[in-house]
Design brief:
Distance between the termini: 42 Å
Shape: globular
Oligomer: single chain
Largest sheet: 9 strands, antiparallel
Structural class: alpha+beta
Order of helices and strands: HEEEHEEHEEEEEHEEHHHE
Number of strands: 13
Length: 304
């Protein structure tokens, strides 16, 4: 069990992808950062790994993310929707950039796309592929969880702030032998440790993304639930370890050969049963999903 936890702490960096919300505002032709620095991420101790997304005024800082993380953030895609070279999920970079004066936060994604295209010489195309998925739906007996209590300061139950609407952003994830924790801000958080999943002020979008990290196939939100929820789930030790291993694999972590044997004692039943205690259900289906195919990308960016 100790080896499994040490190996999979690196997957915490992928957690931030569930935070960056989608947006679809009209944008000017090919916006670009005023300046941007890209450097390979330095080593971090396996006992306590950290990743950060920080937006303060015009300054944007992204730490210890893989190229796949950046592609997913730039194009609003999940990991399974990105197809490219095998090293893309494990090559990590730090980015420090400045947004031009007068530019809105709705332009950060296209700026990041332009940065990837220019500095990594990235070329892509999109196509549809059919996936076996789990559809997260409300069970026949109805929802059994309640919306998060109202924030006494804001008067609402919303979780993470929209990074495209004013105010500073400081989202961090930490992983170590004891598990993984993510602080999204505004009272929203996740802690995954000791055979438990504890979430506060989670939207179904964030919760579904996390479930997908633990499963053998993508999870698609079909609940139509718009609120945020406090969620607590418990698992068997065998399923918890298997979930850690699958999430590490999804994050591009290279696992030792014996890791696959650790999956054999897990049935996954405690995860499905835990979801049902919320009045939800994971339903096996097939669905066409859009995929971004990376046709060309350099391992290292051009000079800053």
């Amino acid at each position: 069990m100790g080896k499994a936890v040490r190996v999979v702490t690196r997957w915490a960096v992928a957690a931030l992808l569930v935070w960056f919300p989608a947006f679809g505002q009209t944008q000017p032709p090919r916006p670009e950062f005023e300046v941007a620095s890209i450097r390979p991420s330095g080593p971090q101790p396996p006992e306590q790994l950290g990743v950060g997304v920080h937006i303060d005024g015009a300054q944007v800082t992204l730490n210890y993310m893989t190229l796949r993380d950046y592609i997913g953030m730039a194009y609003e895609l999940k990991n399974y929707q990105i197809s490219g070279p095998e090293w893309v999920p494990s090559t990590r970079f730090d980015i420090a950039a400045k947004v031009p004066a007068g530019a809105g936060r709705n332009q950060i994604r296209p700026m990041l796309r332009a940065l990837l295209e220019d500095r990594f010489q990235m070329k892509t195309h999109r196509e549809n592929r059919e996936f076996a998925v789990y559809a997260l739906v409300v069970a026949k007996g109805g929802l059994k969880m309640k919306e998060s209590p109202l924030d006494p300061e804001t008067g609402d139950s919303t979780g993470p702030a929209d990074p495209l609407r004013g105010g500073g952003i400081n989202v961090t994830a930490q992983g170590g032998r004891g598990g993984v924790s993510v602080n999204y801000g505004r009272g929203a958080s996740i802690n995954f440790a000791n055979d438990k999943f504890e979430g506060r002020k989670l939207s179904m979008r964030i919760f579904t993304e996390w479930l997908g990290r633990f499963m053998d196939r993508p999870v698609v939100d079909m609940t139509d639930l718009q609120g945020t929820y406090d969620i607590s789930l418990e698992f068997t030790p065998e399923d918890y370890r298997a979930m850690m291993i699958r999430s590490a694999m999804a994050a591009g972590v290279v696992l030792p050969p014996q890791a696959m044997t650790w999956l054999q004692g897990a049935s996954g039943e405690s995860l499905f049963a835990a979801v049902q205690t919320l009045g939800l259900k994971l339903d096996s289906r097939k669905a066409p999903l859009e995929v971004l195919v990376v046709d060309k990308i350099e391992r290292m960016p051009t000079e800053n």
